[in-house]
């Protein structure tokens, strides 16, 4: 799971846009594991896994599992891969549908009913040596969340919710030990998207990621 993938999944799981606005539905897959290390869910348009509970224990994304919503054997499925074999009854909660939160910017030709939307994108990464051995590095990443819509009040409210949730979950990310909101931009007209679409951005720094090579 890359840092950008994690930021996208975090935004979808935290309802920065509601499930109705996103155009998704939340449902569950259930069953019983007997030493499995992976699970396939045969739904073509899953967008995010909200949670996985096995034998009454909630697993942690990154530490306990990762997932690929575009896994393909003969058709598109979601493949969940566990870091250790799982045993017991499971409940996987996920969203499926069209979605309006993506890790790129929306096309300029989208119609008004395609909004509100949200984009998550990486702006920059910095790397520094972590000691003098030449094999360990410490990294930070700068990411931006951009909310688009025609309602200025809605955008401001979503931005406040985004900032609050980032602060509340600052130490809950997998790729970065600490994440903090930094620069927040004003609500402005979104050029090239007609007269009615506005947007605002919130930048986020992911800090203290240590890599060994």
Report on the structure:
- With 213 residues, the chain is α+β, with helices and mostly antiparallel strands.
- It has helices at residues 3-13, 19-22, 152-168; strands spanning 24-41, 46-54, 57-58, 65-72, 76-97, 101-102, 117-129, 136-149, 178-184, 188-189, 198-212.
- The strands form 2 sheets. Strands 6, 7, 8, 9, 10 and 11 form a 6-stranded mixed β-sheet that branches. Strands 1, 2, 3, 4 and 5 form a 5-stranded antiparallel β-sheet that branches.
- The radius of gyration is 19 Å and the shape is globular.
- The model has no long low-confidence stretch (mean pLDDT 93).
Short descriptors:
213 residues; 6-stranded mixed sheet; 5-stranded antiparallel sheet; 11 strands; globular
- Strand count: 11
Q: Tell me the series of helices and strands, N- to C-terminal.
A: HHEEEEEEEEHEEE
- Biggest β-sheet: count, sense, barrel? 6 strands, mixed
Shape: globular
Structural class: alpha+beta
What integer is the average pLDDT?
A: 93
Number of helices: 3
Helix content: 10-25%
Could you tell me the radius of gyration in angstroms? Answer: 19 Å
Distance between the termini: 17 Å
Proportion of residues in β-strands: over 45%
Low-confidence stretches: none
């Amino acid at each position: 799971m890359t840092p950008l993938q994690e930021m996208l999944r975090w935004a979808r799981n935290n309802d920065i846009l509601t499930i109705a606005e996103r155009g998704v539905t939340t449902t569950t897959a259930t069953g019983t594991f007997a030493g499995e290390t992976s699970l396939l869910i045969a739904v073509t348009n899953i967008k995010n896994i909200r949670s996985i509970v096995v034998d009454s224990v909630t697993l942690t994304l990154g530490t306990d599992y990762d997932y690929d919503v575009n896994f393909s054997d003969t058709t598109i499925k979601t493949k969940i891969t566990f870091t250790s074999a799982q045993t017991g009854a499971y409940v996987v909660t996920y969203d499926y549908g069209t979605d309006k939160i993506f890790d790129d910017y929306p096309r300029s030709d989208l119609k008004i009913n395609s909004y509100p939307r949200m984009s998550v994108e990486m702006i920059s990464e910095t790397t520094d040596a972590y000691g003098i051995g030449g094999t360990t590095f410490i990294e930070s990443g700068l990411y931006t969340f951009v909310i688009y819509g025609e309602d200025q009040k809605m955008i401001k409210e979503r931005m406040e919710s985004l900032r609050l949730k980032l602060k509340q979950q600052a130490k809950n990310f997998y790729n970065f030990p600490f994440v903090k909101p930094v620069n927040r931009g004003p609500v402005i007209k979104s050029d090239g998207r007609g007269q009615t679409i506005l947007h605002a951005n919130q930048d986020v720094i992911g800090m203290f990621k240590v890599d060994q090579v």
